[in-house]
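Hi R.,

Here's the chain you asked about this morning:
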Amino acid sequence: MIPLTDLLDTVLRKLDGGECPSPSRVALELMALLERPNASVAEAATLVRLDSVLTAKILELANSVLYRGSRPVLALPDAILRLGLRTLAHFVLGLSLTKTRSPIPGLDLSRYWARALVRALFLEELVTRVGSWSKAEVFTLGLLGDVGYLLLFCAVPETMAELVRCQTDPHDLSPAEQERLGIDHVELTALLLERWGFPQLMLRTVRSQLEAVPVEEDSRLGRLCHLLEAGRLFAELWDDT
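And here is the predicted structure, written out as tokens:
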């Protein structure tokens, strides 16, 4: 078994050093921009225009059959205005995540990020009907709610590939990780989210995946746990289609 402190040091070193695949800088800055109530199209355009390929993709989307208006848009601010800031941010995030090719043995990184993005979008849609959480916060929880899985692959790719290959039931992966590594991907996810300043309610929601006793459904924690589980199941069903 790898000493837990050594494993955590490896994870944090690779994460802080930018060695683990992650969303692009533009995508993260756009998501942060959405948190501001006075966010403007001009600010979004300033971020995006630094990437010529991304600019072309956005103009292509804005002029597609999904968003086509009375005439084509040729200016980036007009394209962003047609799409809306939230659609723009999600499009850029999805593009930056799913186009990445995995350098990690045993991990399909494009598939991992695609599932995470689907989970996040599904949670954001659900939270408009259930609960009283910020859409942006729940979206982030959905996107990063399984990030410990990715970072264990970054830290010990051969070991994780072997553990995943040997488990016929996905529920057996966490016990196998604990036995081999001294920590599982669920607990690592919670530790990282805590390091990034997530509230205790969300940390407990992530950790609830390992609890034998079900959380009370009528509590705020219980509702958030069910939302996260629903998002996970939806992403799995989407991945199987």
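One quick note: The chain is about 65% helix and 0% strand.

Cheers,
M.
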